[in-house]
Design goal:
Helix content is 32%, strand content 22%. With 504 residues, the protein is α+β, with helices and mostly antiparallel strands. Among the domains are: 109 residues, Dipeptide-binding Protein, domain 1 (Alpha-Beta Complex); 214 residues, Dipeptide-binding Protein, Domain 3 (Dipeptide-binding Protein, domain 3). The strands form three sheets. It has a ten-stranded mixed β-sheet with strand order 8-9-10-1-11-16-12-15-13-14, with helices on both faces. A four-stranded antiparallel β-sheet has the order 4-5-7-6, covered by helices on one side. A two-stranded antiparallel ribbon has the order 2-3. A hairpin with a 5-residue loop joins strand 2 and strand 3. Helix 14 runs antiparallel to helix 15 and helix 15 packs antiparallel against helix 16.
Length: 504
């Protein structure tokens, strides 16, 4: 028998502890460890609209329709769909080879349960808002159904691939209840949830019976690391293989480190100033001056390495609501002139309030401070306050937001209704602009079924909103991503980072 000294034993125990703390990587590299900035809000994927959790849910659950990396709407659980010309119904045909993780077969009954019966039973689900026009889902057969609406609903197909739209199992959920499902969720997705530590770790294992293309990696570990500097340290040390949401300067620096690649990827999120139509901003001169005074190109260069595209509309380039040639100019001289017309100047500034998050998206607080400095030069004095992202909705419902709020709005679909419509509809929780004149136009546009007229209408509303100062788009958001150079993944235009697309 070999005897170990106390010192040698202690060293060995320390090494064993260190090795145990590192992510397990099987022979042949069939696993990946991802550093993610936020946890899911719960394992009921229909309950809360949380953009950053979308990619996590998509590994465990499937959506009725999907998007390609270029954001084209494509079949998924639904293999064919037909929207009625009047937008009042949507006929669906489902795949017949899809099974949930417990082996039970998915049918149109599960779809009806997910999008209709759960809402009608009184469960508090965010999809009740996105499918608020839905009055029934008629089951034709196990593979066919028709969604029926109380008013034209032309964007329902894109919503079937957007936030909260994941099919859950009717029989299993009724059997175990909401708490039982949240504790042990099952979907039809490419991975199964095998371990979960709230705000700590998510462990997924490949669904060997998946109906679609099998993931190349057997195991995906998501480490929830909320602090950006901690994510930087983790990717640099090699304890994780990929991370997102690090400061731009760190993504650029880490991209020069051997074995790592840093990326700044424009995505379909819009960074903008949400605007009230009262208080100091009741004066259109003040609103328009505030917009003219912002040097968006300078913001992009300072905070996003020039990768964030300056915007003049609440839509990103290449999406249907974008209008080539429409520009809202950076013109501090015009800002000064407009303010002077209302009796304000740098010596006698108009005073406004401004809210911002701090850490919700890269450099949000620093960008807000830069905007405040730009305003000061022309005669706008802004008092800056920091709020939590969730607080925005609470303050908006209570009509307690300041004149303007720096905001990042996610629209993975790129549809103009979900940009201009949701940002400017006074009846939805996103918009602090409550002026009924523009509001009535926005609400009416939701009921336009003809596609050409629908797109043209949203383009016109976007331009009108910016021209009157009801909306101040700033930049197309950028996803910062750092990964090991030998890890490949599919890059989506909306920022999805999916384990099922990864391989070494």
């Amino acid at each position: 028998m070999v005897k170990l000294s106390r010192r040698v034993f202690a060293q060995g125990a320390s090494l064993a502890s260190l090795l145990a703390s590192l992510p397990a990587v099987a022979a042949g590299k069939d696993s990946v460890t991802i550093g993610w900035p936020s946890d899911v809000t719960g394992w009921d994927p229909n309950q809360r609209f949380t953009p950053d959790a979308q990619a996590l849910y998509k590994m465990v659950f499937d959506q009725p329709l999907d998007q390609s990396p270029s954001l084209k709407l494509i079949p998924n659980l639904i293999k064919a769909w037909t929207l009625a010309p009047d937008g009042m119904s949507l006929a669906l045909e489902f795949r017949d080879d899809v099974r949930f993780h417990d082996g039970s077969k998915m049918t149109s009954a599960d779809f009806r349960w997910t999008f209709f019966e759960r809402v009608k039973s009184g469960q508090k689900l965010d999809i009740a808002n996105s499918f608020r026009k839905l009055k029934d889902i008629e089951i034709i057969s196990p593979t066919k159904a028709v969604m029926r609406f109380d008013s034209p609903a032309p964007t329902v197909p894109v919503w079937l691939a957007f936030l909260g739209s994941f099919v859950v199992p009717k029989d299993y959920m009724e059997k175990v209840g909401l708490e039982g499902f949240a504790a042990k969720p099952i979907g039809t997705g490419p991975y199964k949830l095998v371990e979960y530590q709230m705000n700590g770790r998510i462990v997924l294992e490949r669904n060997e019976d998946y109906w679609g293309p099998k993931p190349k990696l057997k195991r995906v570990v998501i480490e929830i690391i909320k602090d950006p500097s901690a994510r930087v340290a983790a990717i640099q040390s090699g304890s994780i293989d990929l991370t997102v949401g690090v400061p731009v300067r760190e993504a650029e620096r880490l991209g020069k480190v051997a074995g790592l690649k840093g990326e700044l990827n424009p995505i379909q999120r819009v960074i903008l100033l949400q605007v009230r139509n009262d208080q100091a901003f009741a004066d259109p001169n003040v609103r328009l001056a505030a917009h003219h005074a912002i040097d968006k190109a300078a913001l992009s260069k300072a905070f996003y390495g020039g990768a964030a595209v300056p915007l003049s509309l609440p839509a990103t380039p290449g999406t249907p609501g974008f209008v080539d040639g429409f520009k809202f100019a950076y013109d501090p001289a015009m800002a000064t002139k407009l303010l002077a017309a209302s009796g304000f100047s740098p010596a006698k500034p108009v005073k406004i309030g401004m809210a911002t998050t701090n850490g919700q998206f890269p450099n949000d607080y620093d960008m807000a401070r830069a905007i405040v400095a730009m305003w000061k030069k022309v005669g706008i004095e802004a008092e800056l306050e920091v709020i939590e992202y969730a607080k925005y909705f609470e303050l908006n419902r209570g009509n307690k937001l300041p004149e303007t709020t720096l905001y990042s709005f996610d629209n993975a679909t790129g549809d103009p209704e979900i940009y201009a419509g949701y940002l400017l509809n006074p009846k939805l929780p996103f918009s602090p602009w409550k002026d009924p004149v523009l509001g009535e136009k926005v609400i009416a546009q939701f009921n336009v079924a003809d596609e050409a007229k629908r797109i043209a209408g949203w383009r016109a509303i976007g331009q009108e909103a910016v021209t009157m100062g009801a909306c101040m788009p700033l930049l197309q958001s950028v996803q910062t991503l750092v990964r090991k150079t030998d890890l490949a993944y599919s890059k989506y235009g909306n920022g999805w980072v999916l384990g099922q697309t990864m391989n070494w």
